[in-house]
Specification:
This protein is α+β, with helices and mostly antiparallel strands. The chain contains 14 helices and 18 strands. The structure holds adenosine-5'-diphosphate (ADP) and magnesium ion (MG).
Length: 405
């Protein structure tokens, strides 16, 4: 089993997928723009070979270099788990005749308007929306859909350049803020709770499923620095509240002709009970969601994903044991972390439920909170009971305070 895996060491969690592939018996051929000397020992130990390319996003150049490098070798899979590279992986599969999702199929997971068209064509509820390339198109869409609206990039990530727009004057302002974005979606604003639906699929059928809740919604978490964003996996997937969302998720996988690999979907639950599709990617969720899912079931999805991709099997027990919450912290002030208040008390009172303390250490420089999904670090904790998990997460959100200066 020879597997080409794109960008095996970046972002850092790719290290674990590379190792997972090796653990299930694949010969892993890495392609990335990092210098081989800079790869972690974990990745170096897992790779059979590595091709460094000057620009990993340059589709044509990468294709030519990979073709030359692979000459005389047989390849069974070409995979990527990092959003910006999923189309490149599909392009390479088509070029070399390797099984897996086609370029057109993957495009349905990458282009947010095409995605919604395909999901809507299957009779599923998506927000009303329009693809806009010019200012005039934005105004026309706003007129047609009505306020409040969301304006966001067609190929966005991490809520970047995403705005809620309540009226015309706000639209004038947001148009100025988004002029650098070549194509935007203008969407009906959907009010409600926001959840994920995540899977590892084998030929479109989920071998593993997960739901997590965002508290608060990502756009709010990204709009206010004082918020400590919480994401919690839901242990009890059979509860009635989630039924329609999970059904929507299954419908979306069918509508978009999912193949084998990770998916990460977001959906809204309105107060009247209606569920609405948000977006989906054919790659794992970021910001340590996979670690949360691993803790939820005490398994390694890094390895099980690899097994699914290589052998079309999934061996881990998917019984859900915990609700696993991650709480991201943002320090008050600028510069270096000077003080962390409340941590000792939290660890004393429920430290046995904390599975990961990854707060920046004293003296470390603050991260730019708009640029990072992980803020100035996080605590991850788990508990079998949802209310207890959320209560502990809220305590971390409010009582643990980091200071910088
Ligand atoms: N139509 C919408 N109605 C309400 N909120 C939205 C809508 N579209 C996006 N958002 C908010 O913006 C966030 C980011 O949008 P999303 O489509 O998920 O893009 P990204 O790729 O940046 O994650 C969402 O998590 C949600 O909080
Ligand atoms: Mg999103």
């Amino acid at each position: 089993m020879n597997v080409v895996f794109l960008s095996p060491g970046y972002p850092p969690e790719m290290n674990h997928y590379t190792r997972g592939l090796a653990e299930v018996g694949a010969n892993v051929f890495g392609v990335g723009d990092s210098h081989p000397g800079g790869l972690s020992p974990e990745v170096k130990g897992a790779l059979a070979d590595y091709l460094q390319v000057p620009r990993i996003m340059d589709e044509r150049d990468v294709t030519e270099r990979v073709a030359a490098w692979l000459r005389g070798r047989s390849v069974d899979r070409i995979e990527a788990n990092w959003e910006p590279l999923v189309l490149l992986a599909a392009r390479l599969r088509e070029r070399f005749g390797i099984p897996g999702m086609s370029y057109d199929t993957v495009l349905g997971f990458r282009d947010k308007e095409l995605m919604k068209q395909r999901v809507a064509a299957a009779g599923l509820r998506v927000p009303k929306s329009a693809r806009c390339r010019t200012v005039a198109e934005v105004w026309a869409a706003a007129e047609q859909i009505g306020y409040p609206l969301i304006v966001k990039p067609i190929a966005g990530a991490g809520s970047a350049d995403t705005y809620r727009v309540n009226d015309k004057p706000e639209m004038t302002r947001v148009i100025k803020l988004t002029v650098h974005v070549p194509e935007v979606s203008v969407e009906e604003f959907v009010d409600g709770e926001e959840f994920t639906f995540d899977t590892v699929c084998i030929d479109g059928k989920p071998a593993f499923e997960n739901v997590a809740q965002y508290l608060p919604r990502p756009l709010e978490a990204r709009s206010h620095e004082w918020v400590s964003p919480v994401i919690c996996t839901v242990r009890d997937m059979l509860q009635p509240k989630l039924r329609d969302g999970i059904r929507l998720g299954h419908g979306v996988l069918r509508a978009l002709k999912m193949g084998t690999g990770f998916t990460h979907m977001e959906w809204f639950l309105k107060s009247d009970g209606e569920v609405v599709f948000g977006e989906i990617g054919c790659r794992p969720g970021g910001a340590h969601l996979v670690d949360q899912m691993n803790h939820t079931c005490d398994i390694s999805l890094f390895r099980e994903w690899a097994r699914a991709v290589c052998w079309k099997t999934f061996e881990a027990d998917t019984t859900r044991k915990y609700n696993t919450a991650i709480i991201f912290k943002r320090a008050k002030g600028q510069g270096r972390i000077t003080r962390i208040e409340g941590r000792d008390e939290i660890l004393r009172s429920f430290g046995k439920h904390v599975v990961w303390d990854n707060l920046l250490p004293l003296g470390a420089h603050r991260r730019d909170w708009k640029q990072t999904l992980v803020s100035d670090g996080f605590l991850m904790l788990k508990h079998p009971d949802w209310d207890t998990a959320i209560r502990m997460a809220n305590t971390v959100a409010t009582d643990l305070v980091m200071y910088a200066g």
